[in-house]
What we know:
By secondary structure, the chain is an alpha/beta fold. The chain is built from twelve helices and 13 strands. The strands form three sheets. A seven-stranded mixed beta sheet has the order 1-9-8-5-4-2-3, sandwiched between helices.
Amino acid sequence: MRRDPKPIPLLDLTLQFRSLESELRAALDEVLSTQHFIMGPVVAEFEDDLAAYCRVSHAFGVSSGTDALLAALMALEVGPGDEVITTPYTFFATAGSIARLGAVPVFVDIRPDTFNLDPALASRAITKRTKGLLPVHLFGQMADMEPLLDIAQEHGFWVVEDAAQAIGAELEGRRAGSLGRVGCFSFFPSKNLGCFGDGGAVTTTDGDLAERLDILRNHGARPKYHHQIVGGNFRLDAVQAAVLRVKLPHLDSWTEARRANAARYRRLFVEAGLAMSSDRSNTSPSPADAPVVLPYERPGRRHIYNQFVIRARKRDALITYLRENNIGCEVYYPLPLHLQPCFAYLGYREGDFPVAEAAAQETLAIPIYPELTEKQQERVVEVIAGFYRG
């Protein structure tokens, strides 16, 4: 394979910035001219815009996606001895936020097709100490919320949506962050809607919970210097809110570009003989199958493709080959949470969650950002084909 001198990064944010540079600079100049950096009108305006976009009554900007999860769990009074059922195949913050409050993350395995929490297994993990469910809409596709909500209603507890990778994702027309008691979002720069640093948000349709979330993010104070509860410094900076206000109106067009790129990848991989059609549920690749398994988009979903994650035979060798050929790629996530050293006290062992463990060993994210060109996608698939031919 000829070494291509033009790298194709996993994500190129410079292209997005150039397209919005004048709007972004004007928004930042406005914040600088007012010198109002903490909370204030621009944060409130963004929160109104976000609530409308997510189709919820209330949205509150917070300091990060991690703090969104922490604030949500604090608002729901999660504490020592409580159990929260969640997935072992996700970013650390999902379970880390549970543990920080003295509660116990109870892991259950994932579906092999979408990598999202398996509701049947979640149902079996319920105990008298279960406080709620914390599913993750991983890689931009919503989890199976209907059965999870049914389980929660049956047992009288809540569902918090970790929608950090899923802003704008839909399930039967309902937006991520609108189905559970609380939705939690991240605006880390690499997200589909990213700011210029850390940022996040919580959403809810529960008025009483909204008031509690609003107080919690500002040290539990209302009015100023009068603290009703112990909260945290979870506020979204005005600078970040200004950036997000500029970007939010473009989010749906960026999402559609990602979805178009995903459709093109499917065609290119199948035409290259690297993968079978992904119109059915898939598990792990085997020597009898094509070497690549494509992402599976379940019916009734709007997948926003925060990442385009394939299963790949000889994954680690493929990573080396892609990087040698200047193709960006990443593993999300190489070690499931139940095997992380900090969670050894929970008593999980290798083999406890075989689907999550297989995903950690086989999955690979390739470029999917909106500005990715057809020629670049053809190059990505060509390089992968060259690896398997070799």
